């Protein structure tokens, strides 16, 4: 079975490609942007990469047989030359999530991590916890994990941990990706409005989450955020699976903070203290991620007390408050936050850690929801813990950044380019400051470029 993957250099589809190669399948693929590090990782696996979406990439030629199956990434649209050729020639095709669900996940004990925030970190942590007790899980993580050399592997055990995204599967399948995974254990970490390009309102996302709930068997487990009103609404639509809730001071699994910044906390289950967790992550959102992963690993058969030491060795996913520079007593972080809630909780965790030290934020509105202005009114409140904010307002942004900078009451400014942003931060930054770059895109390498400027 020879596969051609359209959109192969995306994080998810690149993981699908790596898993297919691990299964021994011949794999090739095409993408509009074939570049490192993903291109290097895939080529090292023996995967042929092709630049652009051209019909001839799907055609037989000397030394190049036509693929038996085309796996279509969700960035593909009608009008794409490769897509049009695939349809006209009646080639077999499938979405990435469907291929994964039918080929690799069938018959496995799948642990799916769903939620608006924290999916990548929680998935990485859950895989690390299961690995620490010898369960050798397979996994697919939508980022670069700190404790593994790869972001996807088939695994040796029966468990498979997967980041379960609510985004749609493909241009021909508008269901959320996670409905294809058929998990035995599902984490519902949180639910808020996002993905304004495909969901009209939060109720539409709630319905997709309920589709996921419908697929979890009665002898499985739902691990659910006890604080989240939207998830309560999802469960009220119907639930046929035992539920374990988690929260800070609420739920079946509870955390009691030992350190205000979330770096140490006590865990209990059903009122019985299990032990303390000490680790490097910060913020209440990280504590919630930890509780979710611990509860799910326990549901998979692990002894929760045996899991606790593994938290100390957990290395978070790249670009989650990743320290990328420390020069002239100015610390520079790269963070993936791209939603007001994620921004607020990340900065609150840092504020609890650094006390009265200044926090400067460089913000790029990069996600579809951000670019459309769906979160514009929530941005200024989410930046309450920042002493100064430099907002990247590219000329093509369809809404006025003054909505944000004016609401910051003198703490915010907007610039049109990354070069101007770096210059503005260079002028403002002082010894003792913490500078956080926030974007779910490449940000033109701004965090490391700024760190290099500080080093001179």
TrEMBL record:
Residues 113-297 form the Mur ligase central domain. Coiled coil: none annotated. Residues 3-104 form the Mur ligase N-terminal catalytic domain. One of its GO terms (biological process) is cell wall organization. Keywords: ATP-binding, Cell cycle, Cell division, Cell shape, Cell wall biogenesis/degradation, Ligase, Magnesium, Nucleotide-binding, Peptidoglycan synthesis. Pathway: Cell wall biogenesis; peptidoglycan recycling. ATP binds at residues 115-121. InterPro entries: Mpl, Mur-like_cat_sf, Mur_ligase_C, Mur_ligase_C_dom_sf, Mur_ligase_cen, Mur_ligase_N, MurCDEF_pg_biosynth. GO terms for molecular function: ATP binding; UDP-N-acetylmuramate-L-alanyl-gamma-D-glutamyl-meso-2,6-diaminoheptanedioate ligase activity. Residues 319-441 form the Mur ligase C-terminal domain. It catalyses: UDP-N-acetyl-alpha-D-muramate + L-alanyl-gamma-D-glutamyl-meso-2,6-diaminopimelate + ATP = UDP-N-acetyl-alpha-D-muramoyl-L-alanyl-gamma-D-glutamyl-meso-2,6-diaminopimelate + ADP + phosphate + H(+). Pfam families: Mur_ligase, Mur_ligase_C, Mur_ligase_M. Its EC number is 6.3.2.45. The keyword Plastid does not apply. Signal peptide: none annotated. Its cofactor is Mg(2+). This is UDP-N-acetylmuramate--L-alanyl-gamma-D-glutamyl-meso-2,6-diaminoheptandioate ligase. The gene is mpl.
